Amino acid sequence: AQSVSQHNHHVILSEAASLELGCNYSYGGTVNLFWYVQYPGQHLQLLLKYFSGDPLVKGIKGFEAEFIKSKFSFNLRKPSVQWSDTAEYFCAVNAPDSWGKLQFGAGTQVVVTP
Amino acid sequence: GAGVSQSPRYKVAKRGQDVALRCDPISGHVSLFWYQQALGQGPEFLTYFQNEAQLDKSGLPSDRFFAERPEGSVSTLKIQRTQQEDSAVYLCASPGPPGELFFGEGSRLTVL
To answer: Half-sphere exposure of residue A12, counting CA atoms within 13 Å on the CB side?
Structure first.
């Protein structure tokens, strides 16, 4: 069965610090990979996605993620965070033939202090 | 509509009551997904519709959970004889560009 593991449940950092959120998945086949974000009081929205090709993908708001197949990882990074990046971040995977049926990680709550 | 709309936003039920949660997907979207998000967890897939057909209900946790979409647009998730473990946010989603889901703001159910 698929599973997604996010390494940290809570992260607190200061503005301008760098952010890296870990995500590992377990699945015996090709997967699509996603990071979703939920800002306070808002709905879940897509941050970035990986289907194939260049394993380094860039998303909105300066975020990027790197797919490392050998490590079954899809870590999210941002070189310099802002207070507005305070949110909960979810890693998700699915099989290519069931794209709407996502398996989410438990999420990482990120708090950026001014 | 422009986005996915869910109602009610908040619902408090006494244990044993039945509840119904409504989803208005993005206008014209054929597919619709329901997810359950318990406190401190990521969303978990419940069920999937294509038009009025429920093609996958493998995530429904028990036979107390029932979803329908009779005319292929609005969908209702019904939970019978609610239990405390049903307390969660119930999310509805419509598909967007390949691989992307547009989520509604959710219905937060609290069972006392």
So the answer is: 2
